[in-house]
From TrEMBL:
Required for the activity of the biotin synthase BioB. The keyword Metal-binding applies. Keywords: Biotin biosynthesis, Iron, Metal-binding. Belongs to the BsaP family. Residues 58-84 form the Biotin synthase auxiliary protein C-terminal domain. Its cofactor is iron-sulfur cluster. InterPro entries: BsaP_C. This is Biotin synthase auxiliary protein. It comes from the Bacteria.
Length: 85
């Protein structure tokens, strides 16, 4: 698989940018619609399954201490990034 060097997804998460697609369901989020994340997802404990920018299914790896998710377009996010906030 070709890997991207994009940091777009990580940047969007770190800046708290509003997701375009729901990270758990992949549904497009309408403007003005409230985003409901499960409590564990909000706490960064649950790995996102879909890229919040493009809605693509991400490659997710679960580790004992967290997770890593990868969108072929927008790059990689790691739960450890979120801990650093
Ligand atoms: Zn993406």
């Amino acid at each position: 698989m070709k890997r991207t060097d994009s940091q777009e997804l990580a940047a969007a998460l770190l800046t708290g940018e509003r997701p375009v697609f729901h990270p758990n369901t992949g549904q497009e989020i309408a403007k003005g619609e409230t985003i409901h994340l499960s409590p564990s997802a909000r706490a960064g404990l649950e790995a996102p399954r879909y890229c919040q920018i493009c809605g693509r299914r991400m490659i997710v790896q679960i580790r004992p201490d967290g997770w890593q998710a990868y969108c072929s377009r927008h790059g990689e996010v790691d739960s450890s990034y979120l801990d650093q906030r």
